[in-house]
């Protein structure tokens, strides 16, 4: 049985379809070159023609011929995620793009990775992969990683696939080091017409889509994390605005917005403020400008006039001017062939710009909102969105500059640049979804869109801190504020007491209070739900305080990761046990003052989500078992001394919270004290596959808190 026949059998069995006639012909052409001992082959065929299926066929063919391992390179993390499930249906495939090298070390015969990650893991790769398949190989024109990786890896075969080969001359020159390693490039080129001749059933798409990850550099990551984690001391709405400005438009837009907010008094002096100011003094191009240069290196109108005019969209004027400067300086395109279309131009200037573009005198138009509607921009050969508008209308208006009535063979290029691990991927998903529900055909835009969100950034940050601390978990405060709190209870109480609205509301409710009385009532309000219910002003003040203590988008991402079973948490027992202890001592004093022998509090609760966050220890879900065993060992001795503590849990499906109740009893000198604390654990999914283990952790966590309080109570009575 030949290679295509065997592969068709597998396709039919797993997916229910077989190769198209034109795919079989392309496969035979590739195999013929391989059998002729050609070692560097690039296949150019359009989007929608099934390159991925052919990549899988060639991987199977190479493995059947004795090649030990195949490395499949994708230009972005997004494509690694998108391709891996399909590959996995046909063969044993690993995926690696975060740089921990686990999949490489696991011995998968096929690994899907980015070139950046493969280079990070090169010490584990040498002499291990004798075949390399490069998807979207035209990205290698701007990617120095590809040449460096191949020269170090020294594979026997390199096969590239691409939807577009803008310039064979540029492509060949950019991959000269690969040629030095594996020999002369052999190109197989199939355009729409050729594929249609091979198979009349082939239908070309309206547009092909190319996604570029707009990567932050090391310093940009530091500044972005400062905003994302809420470390900057400012109102949460300001932090969210600056974070999104940075990821969507780049450094210059961030700095422009940052200084405006500072001038208006929205951001005060702090080490983080000066850190951003210092960052803004650096005049390097932003990550969005750097990526645009990469895109235009590939889709260069000077080398391929058919692409003209190229339209670049951004929503910020400062970014538009930065883009022009970067393109002119870095690519050497004459300044008069790159124009910026913004509201700064008069009506006559805009009209003149459009006339020049229609005559073919302008190669690139960089446009802000004014170019999305109301301006008769010529039909684009390439449309580049450097940011993604959430509005379906604006998204569609931009696309309208690309997709107009034209020949069905005239397929256009739609390029999107997005910052990995930021809200941009979610914006794209939402825009595409809105278009779909409005009846717009979006099948040619993106298929099987899998979000690449800030949640992955958060997981990375958690694991980095865990590694640094040699720990199985990391505290919420260290995660978000860069430092641990020695006493989170005192921190929370001080912030609450310094809030003027809270002080005023407490005074109105309980009259003039000494500082000691104020402390006592603050503690009571925090732990007693019906005291808060007495006064809306108290509840409002507490919400405002907790909002400021939980800044940054990281708060929502933590909730999301918990719901998705990516992470879980337990409360820091040392801190919360202090509050249980404080209540035991308060009741003891009350008994003595009132000559009672038994005092109890059945209303003692830890139920405020914003307060409880300060005590969270967050762990990756894969560490759940380890933490459970750790807690079991920790409380075993205490159970033998103080007896068993029974914890009762119930689930509130409306608020998705586990309510854990228990009873803590102590006695001393004829006094019997009992507190019945209640602990709330939020974002609990009743359908979680880790449900039982999570409940076990919660029960152990509650016991640990209470045993510590009991032990410390008796120590203090000695």
TrEMBL record:
UniProt keyword terms in alphabetical order: ATP-binding, Helicase, Hydrolase, Nucleotide-binding
GO MF annotation list: ATP binding; catalytic activity, acting on DNA; DNA binding; helicase activity; hydrolase activity
Keyword Hydrolase: yes
Entries under InterPro entries matching the protein: Helicase/UvrB_N, Helicase_ATP-bd, Helicase_C-like, Helicase_Restrict-Modif_Enz, P-loop_NTPase
Domain annotation Helicase ATP-binding: ranges: 32-183
Entry annotated with the keyword ATP-binding: yes
TM regions (residue ranges): none
Annotated SUPFAM superfamilies: P-loop containing nucleoside triphosphate hydrolases
Residue intervals of the Helicase C-terminal domain: 291-466
Cellular component GO terms, alphabetical: cytosol
PANTHER family named among the record's database cross-references: ATP-DEPENDENT HELICASE IRC3-RELATED, TYPE I RESTRICTION ENZYME ECOKI R PROTEIN
Name of the molecule in the record: DEAD/DEAH box helicase
Gene source species: Pyrococcus horikoshii
